[in-house]
User: What shape does this take?
Amino acid sequence: MSYHNGISFLGLWALVGVAWLFSEDRKNFNWRVVIFGVLLQMLIAFFIFTVPAGTKMFLVINDAVIRVMDSASAGARFVFGRLALSPGQDSGNGETPLGFILAFQAFPTIIFFSSLMSILYFLGILPRIVRGFAYVFTKFMKVSGAESLVTASNIFVGVESALTIKPFLNTMTRSELCVVLTAGMATVASNILVLYIFSLKTYFPAIAGHLISASLLSAPAALIMAKVMVPEAGRPETLGVHVAPPASEDKSIFEAIISGANAGLKMIAGITALLIAILGLLALCDKGFIFLGHKAQALTGLTLDLSLKNICGYVFYPFTLIMGVPFQEAWTVSRIVGERLILTEVVSYQDLAAALASGELRDPRSVVIATYALCGFAHLASMAIFVGGTAALAPARTRDLTRVAFRALAAATLACMMTACVAGTFFTGQSVLFGK
Assistant: This one.
């Protein structure tokens, strides 16, 4: 333990304070949600990182996910051959990998994991787990059953989580709608986790377990930040009511496999289109900012690097420090965490892997905190996706959704950093969970 652990713990409360400063109603502060939410996060983190049984379970889950991923790549290798071999992977027939290729190595596993999640939902395993988490949120944090259910669902699925509360969307309060969007952007779908695992497993062997841990911790964080920024002013229809997730619409396991694979394929198409569009637009914007920087340098003599990454880095630098990142690596982490707002977390995890490969990041503490802070869909593109997807289910609430959208994005960003603070609080270089 070091003073950095104390900084992370204090940073957690500082982030709650930032959310309160931007609250719609500062006088309406729900202490119960904050206190029980933080307590829940601390209990989960303490069990995983400190209790021997929790640590062992963590490592078992990490190894299981890695083994499942190895199985997932079998189909990709059959279809794409050598292109599907990730760095360091043995093909068994003498072929060598060509390097990391996102489209042929990481994307195909999304299809596999989507089918796997669909099977687990059909068998009733996933609904039971979701219902358990929803019960805990409703019981201890005293939030409505509908927002508890959608938050719990977001631990495992993405924008489709809104389908679990479709009957209640038209009567939800503004605060509940903010939770719906915040929970979606503060967490990541389980089938997308494989993208991040592929990026980092070479440098961070326990990455799979940490990403699952981050997704669990971010759920109560999302409830905290959403309820602080948009406090409850009405009485939710499902307050105190435990809402159960709907049953699977698939009639057989094979139908579940097909529907899951199709959903994964649509997700890949969406991610691909988004990356192509956003990275291209970013390159165009950067050219404009660099031009302005050169003009300013000619006029003032000052050297200004006005790239979007650097601008985001400056904005997120104070947050990086209060998350407990060592000072010498804070700038690198702030640029990586800050760029997620514009570039999506997929690109940020790629840049985190590049910083590890180049030696720009060496301290395991920096890597762990960055990994947790990035584990969420908290970016502009995702905000549009979640608002559009939810509005499609409840067109009458489109205006209300758009009005809380940017607050929800801010709340989701703060929730991800709050989760990083929790990880930073329990970080110890001697733990096998945090070793490189």
In short: The mean pLDDT is 85. Residues 3-434 form one domain. The CA atoms of residues 175 and 231 lie 6 Å apart.
